[in-house]
């Protein structure tokens, strides 16, 4: 996305320590990221104020208005039991964003410590952790999530865990490779020579210096998790109905594709927009945080 | 090593000796074979003394220092033999937790690259304070206050402001001052400076060296300077150890080593230092050839292939360290001839 940077942007003075951090300024110059950020903030706002802005109760059924097309009363129409699609979309935002963020947090909580441990200790500990991750990666992600959900049952927590567990392998590998290079840096040696304890070496010296690619990966991961949740819900394994999620709305739309094709657009477009937004922001973060590109954006 | 011999040898250490390294050997197991990076090296440093360890790259200087700190990466490295007596105990026998107390607390170390030896994501103040909090048990506030004093003492201007700076906002010389502040923060008995001035430009080198000497002399801290630049050493070191291919080849007072060099390698090193007074005609002397493959050393003296004094004997027998003067030792069969040639 560096092509978007122009000469006039390069002329802008460097951030001083009293202003916004440099990476944020860089991100705001990245036009697609700004688009992504706007969509993300908008959906977060929608999710937080769902109970205020949604016109109906998302679970309230109305058998006089089944599969209605969009109208003044129901801007996005109603589904096969007469529930208002607008309200369901708004409440679905809550679930989708929560699952997206929670999965990434869980992925980081599992993946990052494992990667740091592997890099720091090396030897058989490294081999054991990495072979475990290799084995896990040999199982297709969706199958692993399905297996977990079949045993655990579908709720926000279990879906997030299933998706986060799948995402954690990439985080481990990423942070391990970074941490291995940090391990060879002189400041790490110097910290050792200062008598810093292993725990602090790992989590104060190694981790903050290896975290950047993980942050990028995480922002891309949110989109991936939202997509994953939709996929699982579509297969009937996601958050249990009647709780509205974008995934199970899509699934219901698919069931009524012939009689009410308008039902697939709201959840479909929402998923595409939000997933793309997280990708844009992740892309922007990568450009901004990559030292090789620093100063060129 | 049994406990009794350990105890006996402890008593032999003179009271003002800070560090006494005996028969230290460190090896690296690589695919090419076992590399004896440090081979049976002994030396000691006294309180307030400045010891220089000199030699080309790859001769074992840095590995000696890392062995003393027990920071040799294991595997592939391994300290196979010897003792490192410090403060009445053998550092090689300590448990890891005890060794951690020694590192930074009693022995400070400064590394070669000032540009990379500070953690890029921590402020200067936090990095100095970290050491104080670990070894002195200070509270964060007390440690930060002390850190500021230390910054002032190593000659950093605007110490108050610099405390909140990140390393990338400072110059190389300033960063090396910060490194000195960190290394000296816990009033160590010994400071090891591993090529601490090599990466700096010449004027800054002199300032940093002066600073190192000043801060260590003030507190009678022993200082080990590891360098390949004999010019640096000449002025400041009390004693000089010359290493080659993992072994100590010559050791003596700075004056003896310079004026009465007894090892051809020392002569070569001195000859390769640019000298303003020398004629500008001709080229700078250099030592022909390169350091031998440490995994496959020749049977005799390791320096023999490059030596202008070499005899038949040198090809088969490796000379041991012999006295060539008062407190002056060298490992060369032709030491007298070498000294006579100067």
List keywords for this structure.
heterodimer, A: 297 residues, mainly alpha, MetI-like fold, disordered N terminus, B: 342 residues, alpha/beta, 8-stranded mixed β-sheet
Structure explained in plain terms:
The complex is a heterodimer of chains A (297) and B (342). With 297 residues, chain A is an all-alpha fold. Chain A contains 13 helices and no strands. The longest helix of chain A has 37 residues, at 85-121. In chain B, α4 crosses α5, α4 (124-135) runs parallel beside α7 and α7 packs parallel to α8 (202-218). The longest helix of chain B is centred in the middle third of the chain and has 17 residues, at 202-218. Classes of the chains: A mainly alpha (297), B alpha/beta (342). The interface between A and B is medium-sized, with 19 and 28 residues.
Determine Rg of chain B (CA atoms, Å).
21 Å
Q: What's the shape of chain A? A: elongated
Mean pLDDT reading of chain B: 81
Percent strand of chain B:
15-25%
Task: Work out the helix count of chain A.
Answer: 13
Query: Which class of secondary structure composition applies to the elements of chain A?
Result: mainly alpha
How many individual β-strands of chain A?
0
Q: Helix content range of the residues of chain A, please?
A: 55-70%
Distance between the termini of chain B: 43 Å
Order of helices and strands of chain A: HHHHHHHHHHHHH
CATH topology of one domain in chain A: MetI-like fold
Would you tell me the structural class of the helices and strands of chain B? Answer: alpha/beta
Catalogue the unreliable spans of chain B.
Answer: 1-11
Number of helices of chain B: 13
Estimate the strand proportion of chain A.
Answer: under 5%
The count of DSSP E runs of length 2 or more, i.e. the number of strands of chain B, is 12
Largest interface, chains and sizes:
A-B, 19 and 28 residues
Oligomeric status of the shown chains?
heterodimer
How far apart the termini of chain A lie comes to 9 Å
Compute the CA-based radius of gyration of chain A. Answer: 22 Å
């Amino acid at each position: 996305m560096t092509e978007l940077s122009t000469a006039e942007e390069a002329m802008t003075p460097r951030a001083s320590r009293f202003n916004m951090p440099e990476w944020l300024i860089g991100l705001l110059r990245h036009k697609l990221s700004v688009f992504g950020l706007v969509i993300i903030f908008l959906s977060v706002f929608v999710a937080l104020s769902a109970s205020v802005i949604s016109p109906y109760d998302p679970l309230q059924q109305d058998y006089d208005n089944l599969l209605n097309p969009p109208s003044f009363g129901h801007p996005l129409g109603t589904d096969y039991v007469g529930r208002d699609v607008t309200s369901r979309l708004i409440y679905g935002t809550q679930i989708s964003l929560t699952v997206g963020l929670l999965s990434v947090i869980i992925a980081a909580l599992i993946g990052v410590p494992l990667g740091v441990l592997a890099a720091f200790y090396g030897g058989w500990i490294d081999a054991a952790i990495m072979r475990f991750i290799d084995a896990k990666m040999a199982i297709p992600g969706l199958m692993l999530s399905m297996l977990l959900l079949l045993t655990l049952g579908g709720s926000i927590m279990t879906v997030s865990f299933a998706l986060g567990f799948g995402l954690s392998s990439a985080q481990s590998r990423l942070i391990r490779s970074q941490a291995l290079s940090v391990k060879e840096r002189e400041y790490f040696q110097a910290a050792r020579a200062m008598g810093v304890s292993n725990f602090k070496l790992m989590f104060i010296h190694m981790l903050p210096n290896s975290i950047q690619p993980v942050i990028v990966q995480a922002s891309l991961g949110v989109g991936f998790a939202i997509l994953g949740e939709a996929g699982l819900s579509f297969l009937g394994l996601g958050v249990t109905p009647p709780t509205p999620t974008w995934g199970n709305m899509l699934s219901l739309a698919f069931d009524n594709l012939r009689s009410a094709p308008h039902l697939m657009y709201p959840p479909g477009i929402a998923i595409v927009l939000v997933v793309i937004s997280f990708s844009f922001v992740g892309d922007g973060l990568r450009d901004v945080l990559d030292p090789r590109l620093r100063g060129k954006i | 090593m049994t406990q009794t011999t350990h105890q006996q040898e402890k008593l032999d250490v003179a009271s003002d000796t800070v560090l006494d390294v005996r028969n230290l050997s460190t090896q690296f197991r690589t695919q090419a074979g076992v590399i004896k990076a440090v081979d049976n090296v002994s030396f000691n440093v006294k309180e307030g003394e400045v010891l220089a360890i000199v030699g080309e790259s790859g001769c074992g200087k840095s590995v000696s220092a890392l062995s003393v700190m027990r920071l040799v990466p294991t595997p592939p490295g391994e300290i196979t033999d010897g003792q490192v007596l410090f403060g009445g105990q053998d550092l090689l026998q300590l448990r890891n937790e005890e060794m951690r107390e020694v590192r930074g607390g009693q022995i400070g170390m400064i590394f070669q690259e000032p540009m990379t030896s500070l953690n890029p994501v921590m402020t200067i103040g936090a990095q100095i304070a970290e050491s104080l909090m670990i070894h002195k048990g200070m509270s964060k506030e007390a440690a930060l206050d002390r850190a500021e004093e230390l910054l002032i003492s190593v000659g950093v201007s605007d110490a108050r402001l610099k405390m909140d700076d990140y390393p990338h906002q400072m110059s190389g010389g300033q960063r090396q001052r910060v490194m000195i502040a960190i290394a000296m923060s816990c009033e160590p008995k010994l400071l090891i400076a591993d090529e601490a001035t090599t990466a700096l430009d010449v004027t800054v080198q002199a300032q940093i060296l002066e600073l190192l000497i000043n801060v260590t002399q003030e507190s009678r801290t022993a200082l080990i300077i590891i360098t390949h630049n004999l010019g640096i050493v000449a002025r400041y070191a009390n004693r000089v150890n010359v290493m080659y291919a993992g072994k100590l080849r010559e050791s003596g007072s700075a004056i003896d080593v310079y004026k009465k060099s007894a090892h051809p390698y020392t002569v070569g090193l001195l000859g390769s230092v640019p000298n303003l007074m020398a004629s500008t005609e001709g080229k700078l002397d250099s030592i022909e050839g390169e350091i031998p493959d440490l995994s496959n050393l020749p049977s005799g003296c390791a320096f023999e292939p490059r030596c202008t004094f070499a005899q038949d004997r040198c090809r088969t027998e490796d000379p041991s360290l012999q006295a060539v003067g008062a407190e002056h030792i060298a490992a060369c069969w032709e030491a007298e001839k070498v000294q006579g040639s100067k």
